[in-house]
TrEMBL record:
Organism encoding this protein: Acidaminobacter hydrogenoformans DSM 2784
Any Pfam family the entry gives: CarD_C
UniProt-listed Gene3D superfamilies: 2.40.10.170, CarD-like, C-terminal domain
Domain annotation CarD-like/TRCF RNAP-interacting: ranges: 1-111
InterPro entries the UniProt entry points to: CarD-like/TRCF_RID, CarD-like/TRCF_RID_sf, CarD-like_C, CarD-like_regulator, CarD_C
UniProt protein name: Transcriptional regulator, CarD family
Lineage, top ranks: Bacteria, Bacillati, Bacillota, Clostridia, Peptostreptococcales
GO biological process, one term: rRNA transcription
């Protein structure tokens, strides 16, 4: 179970810090909620305590795993599906897992594709969102500036 002060990742939204636990009545039902602050989006989110497993909330990675993330970013990108719709769905499934390695692969592959042929509007938006998810977690792990982490990611992808 998570506690106040824990640094966690909320899949599809990014990393944040649990700032509190509150009991609220919503639609006639009393439930406990984690109050999660997402620093990069400057947003607070309420997550039902009893739904954290379903949501996929997890602790941020340990700093000794960062090297593996940057290793994935520096690998050659995989050949992506020609059909943009299928490619988009496959990438979305990876991001929804909340797994930082899957997120890093999506960022790497989309950056490669952007550099080679350019991206559609939808894929460019996915790249920006996915990159923010990745940056948000690395910022909390390394306790560094967002711009510095973004530069590290960009220079890691060859």
């Amino acid at each position: 179970m998570f506690r106040i002060g824990d640094k966690v990742v909320y899949p599809m939204h990014g990393a944040g810090i649990i700032e509190g636990v509150e009991e609220k009545e919503i639609l006639g039902e009393k439930r406990k909620y984690f109050i999660l602050r997402l620093p990069l989006k400057n947003m607070k989110v309420m997550l039902p305590v009893d739904n954290v497993e379903t949501i996929g909330l997890r602790e941020i990675i340990q700093d000794d795993v960062i090297e593996e993330v940057f290793s994935i970013l520096s690998e050659e990108g995989i050949e992506l599906q020609q059909n943009w719709n299928r490619r988009y769905r496959n990438n979305m499934e990876k991001v929804k897992t909340g797994d930082i390695f899957e997120v890093a692969m999506v960022v790497r592959d989309l950056i490669h594709m952007e550099r080679e042929k350019g991206l559609s509007t939808g894929e460019r938006k996915m790249l920006n969102n996915t990159k923010q998810i990745l940056i948000s977690e690395i910022v909390l792990v390394l306790e560094q500036d967002e711009k510095a982490i973004e530069k590290m990611i960009e220079t890691s992808v060859h």
